[in-house]
Amino acid sequence: MPDPAAVVELLEERGVRYTTWDGWLQLDEHERGLGEERGRERIEVVSREEMVELSQVG
Asked: What φ, ψ does residue 48 adopt, rounded to 5°?
């Protein structure tokens, strides 16, 4: 199994934007907030770029 740090290093070397678990939790909270505004459980963010942007922690 690849070392998780090696995977992150490869993504960064290639300039691939990614998210962490904390970032995913942040995105999840955002999607649930969108849904709450419309009486739904969640409204999913579809654009990968928007998902990555919203999931940036810090």
From this structure: -60, -45
